[in-house]
Amino acid sequence: MKVLWKGVYPALTTKFKQNLSIDYEAFMANVDFQIDAGIDGIILGGTLGEASALVGNEKSALIKATKVHVDGKLPVIINIAEQTTEGAITAAKSAQQDGADGLMILPPMRYKATNDETVAYFKAIAHSTDLEIMIYNNPIDYKINVTLDMFESLTACQNIVAVKESSRDISNITRMINRFGDRFHLLCGVDTLAAESLLMGADGWVAGLVCAFPKETVAIYRLIKAGRTAEAIAIYRWFLPLLELDINPQLVQNIKLAEEKVNLGSEIVRPPRLPLSGDLRAQVLDVIESSIASRPSLPNYLSL
User: Fold this and answer.
1) Which phi and psi (to 5°) does residue 279 adopt?
2) What one-character DSSP code corresponds to residue 52?
3) Does residue 258 sit within a domain?
4) Is residue 191 assigned to a domain?
5) Does residue 134 form part of some domain?
6) Is residue 1 in some structural domain?
7) What is the pLDDT of residues 97-137, one digit of tens each?
8) Is the peptide bond prior to 272 cis by the omega test (within 30 degrees of 0)?
9) What's the pTM?
10) 185-188: strand order across its sheet
11) Residue 127's closest CA among 146, 103, 110, 163?
């Protein structure tokens, strides 16, 4: 299925049972709620998906099960985060065989590659697959900044078509547009900068809190794109305390707790992660519960 690389793309959490096996029933129930809310695609196996805790063929099984469940309603994208070029190529080929519609690719893990090494890594993966690719630029968390000059080199790969921009520098949206026009689709990857990024011309939003609040997330996106900025900003201001739960080392636990409180999942995580506890859990719960209590009414955004 063709990925349009615009709109709202949830980076979905992976749901687990008490015995820590994947809970496909709970996962698909959340997927259905996301689809009903108007999302534009699904991203599997990212940080929120606890990719580092998925083992064996679990990623493959998750892609296959999700593709069957969505039944062509929207594209399914898988995250590639590997330590070696060979491992990344193998993962990309496997994803294509499993039916993935696109790839989101991080720079090499663990080793802080040079600019030339990072470009070579991305090109090798791009040359190994027919799938379209979104480069994930997150120098804050992954220590490698994909610069404009590096993206210039990557224009040679026709299937590198999008960027998840998570540098925390809002000006990068304008820099990319000034340099490349519409060569790359730009999607904001930081929840707390989403409205600002969309207003500056970003095509989409790879979102986190959407896992628990998909209607509000899609409403903000569609209202901004429809020019109804004041309405979008009002929802965004309500949403911000929740969105800040995404820019935190415990983002997975935070968002899973939010999912549990709105009956869209549970707070079960795989070790070494542990569910929130003590004062920290109480603080996060206060944000979630107070936000739920003041949840705004939404306009008919699906018609936009």
Assistant:
1) -65, -35
2) G
3) yes
4) yes
5) yes
6) no
7) 999 999 999 999 989 999 999 999 999 999 999 999 999 99
8) yes
9) 0.97
10) 7-10, 204-207, 185-188, 160-165, 132-137, 102-105, 76-80, 42-44
11) 103
